[in-house]
Design a protein that fits this description.
The chain is an alpha/beta fold and 314 residues long. The protein is 39% helix and 20% strand. The chain has three domains: 69 residues, Winged helix-like DNA-binding domain superfamily/Winged helix DNA-binding domain (Arc Repressor Mutant, subunit A), CATH 1.10.10; 92 residues, Periplasmic binding protein-like II (D-Maltodextrin-Binding Protein, domain 2); 108 residues, D-Maltodextrin-Binding Protein, domain 2, CATH 3.40.190.290. Strand 1 and strand 2 form a beta hairpin. The model has no long low-confidence stretch (mean pLDDT 86). Keywords: DNA-binding, Transcription, Transcription regulation.
């Protein structure tokens, strides 16, 4: 691809291209943009002509974003995020703190200091508004990277070089079964007994994903039972375990009350269960509003005030 660093681009073309990639079709993009299909196709061709490279391969019914197209899409996502935040940044002045906090987090974040920070911040700044979305950890990172989120809280397997990370806490995962499972209530169960049990888990329970420590333990102990079901959300994984579909991993501190009520039963390993770190993820290239800066400072100050090892849950 030729050097295009000094060219001027039409933002409308870039925005149209972004929507085409997200909708994965010209027709879908036209419907979303309320345009005619030929107009969208023409916009894509004009952008490809300006750049001098094929961005999307659409031959013979295919729809595949090229390497150059993916690179451009990621940059466009950041531009979209920055433009979408302009109104908040421009209005972020005056003695009365206003603004909007857009938080993306993994589904199983149970962290009392976050709840306390939200309560205190809302009490002190009642005009600030909030939006919380739940997604897989990889999607949370993607939203922060593209400046669609004020910040994210999630598991991290590999840190992205363009983002900042601060560990909030460490949680430990145990294996559990529900009341109808044949291992429920047994105190003589060993890891060997789990090797051929049907398994339910998180979608990220992979050696290359956020729950790698759980996947490593399963591989090391030869747990080769069939994976019956997966979900990216903790509540659904817990539902599957409770329903007796199989054994599965859950954060121990999150399900403590369920253990106390006798609706879940913990299985081995009881010593040194897999540990997962949960991070606050921010984008240093993002222009934060006052509300976002103040809230992040409020949350991180709680970490700084706590003794070492305080936020380790098991």
């Amino acid at each position: 691809m030729e050097d295009i660093s000094k060219r001027r681009f039409d933002w409308n073309l870039l925005h149209t291209f972004t929507v085409i990639v997200e909708e994965r079709s010209i027709t879908g993009a036209a419907n979303r943009l309320l345009l005619r299909q030929p107009s969208v196709s023409n916009a894509l061709k004009r952008l490809e002509d300006q750049i001098g490279a094929r961005l999307i391969d659409r031959e013979r019914g295919r729809f595949e974003v090229t390497e150059q197209g993916l690179a451009l899409y990621h940059e466009c996502r950041e531009i979209c995020g920055a433009i979408g935040r302009l109104s908040d940044v421009m209005q972020d002045s005056g003695s009365q703190l206003t603004g909007h906090l857009h938080l993306w987090m993994a589904s199983h974040v149970v962290f009392p200091p976050l709840d306390d920070a939200l309560f205190e911040f809302n009490r002190q700044h009642p005009h600030v508004t909030y939006e919380i979305n739940v997604a897989t950890s990889s999607h949370v990172v993607s939203q922060v990277l593209s400046q669609q989120a004020s910040f994210g809280i999630c598991l991290v397997n590999e840190q992205h070089p363009r983002l900042d990370y601060r560990r909030l806490y460490r949680e430990h995962f145990g294996f559990f079964c529900g009341p109808t499972h044949h291992l429920f209530g047994r105190q003589d169960v060993t890891l060997a007994d789990l090797r051929h049990e049907a398994f339910v888990s998180f979608s990220t329970d992979q050696l290359s994903d956020a729950l790698a420590p759980v996947a490593v333990l399963r591989a090391r102990e030869g747990m080769k039972g069939k994976v019956i079901a997966t979900s990216p959300h903790l509540e659904e994984v817990r539902r599957l375990i409770n329903a007796g579909l199989g054994i599965g991993p859950l954060p121990i501190h999150v399900v403590k009350s369920a253990l106390d009520r006798g609706v879940l039963w913990q299985l081995p390993p009881y010593e040194a269960p897999p540990a997962i770190d949960i991070y606050l993820v921010t984008n240093p290239r993002m222009s934060l509003g006052r509300a976002e800066r103040f809230f992040i400072d409020n949350l991180t100050s709680r970490l700084a005030a706590a003794p070492d090892g305080y936020f380790i849950y098991s």
